[in-house]
Amino acid sequence: MKRIDIGIALVLLASVLLSSCGVESVVVKPGYDFKKIKRVAVLEFRDSAYYPNSGSMVSQLFVKYLLKTGYNVIERDEIDALLKEHQLSLAGALNPEQVKQFGKICGVDAIITGSIPMVVPERDFYEAGNPRFIAAQVGVTCRMIDVETGEVLWAASNTYDATNTQTAFECLISSLVNQLIRDIARNNK
Question: Does the predicted model carry a pTM greater than 0.85?
Answer without folding.
Answer: no
